[in-house]
Amino acid sequence: MSSLPQRQRVGAYAVLLREHGGRIEVLLSRLAPKVSRTELWTLPGGGVDHGEDPRLAVVREIHEETGLDATVSETAHVYSSHLPRASRDGQLVNAHAIRIVYAGWVPPDAPEPRVIEVDGSTVDAAWKPFDDIVSGAVPAAGLVGEALADHLPFRLQRVAAYAVVLRGTGDDRHVLLTRLSARAAHPGRWTLPGGGIDHGEHPSVALEREVEEECGLACEVGALVGVHDTHFAGNAPSGRLEDYHGVHLLFAATVGDGEPAVREVDGTTESAAWVPVADVRTGRVEVLDVVTYALEVVS
């Protein structure tokens, strides 16, 4: 047993992931030279003050080290590191570090990270490519690798109902579409009107509600015309990176008179319009795969 003074420290940290430019990135903080003489990156976070809730501590630390306001998970992983001979403030001690690591996320439109605290333990903050961390191209503390292995993107399967609404014939045929906002995983692209089915909600009721919210039009739901699915990693409107599997029920539908207009506020839909089918088929309008699939099954 070491006779050195015992020092135990409880710290709270977070793994924040995002999809950016087709790759997964991790938010990291660079340790100051007084902590590490060589370049070393770690998870944003730090010591939990006496009487402080660890979840509040990590949110505070993330803001100080990156300037970002984060949301963190309710649950966490706990890691223990025992160094019988460690240097702390120029003194040899028997050190024991307990690290509580949460999953965290920031809004998709969050600014670039920057250090807020002065003369702290970190001097920089940045989103670093996941692959560069794993390969060692980004020199990272051991905690980073341990935590990344336990904090894979959140898995979500979502069942949604969408309306295939057509009007006109021949070259004048149009399809009712909605354009995704910056809060969505594929901003700027067009998709079918519709959305997630609430627990216990009938798909046709969900679809009527979604079309009214996204297009401002009354919807009459017809027969099921197809089932489509998609699987990708992307940021949810909250900013949380998700391993997402969407199952889409496609229904033939008709809508009432009037021009489409978005009714929901701060949602994932920024506009709605009747779009020429020819523009979709020729690629003049950028759409999600579900639109292409829908036009194939109803043609």
TrEMBL record:
The keyword Hydrolase applies. Residues 7-150, 156-299 form the Nudix hydrolase domain. The keyword Hydrolase applies. GO terms for molecular function: hydrolase activity. Keywords: Hydrolase. Belongs to the Nudix hydrolase family. PANTHER family: ADP-RIBOSE PYROPHOSPHATASE, DIHYDRONEOPTERIN TRIPHOSPHATE DIPHOSPHATASE. This is NUDIX domain-containing protein. It comes from Nocardioides glacieisoli.
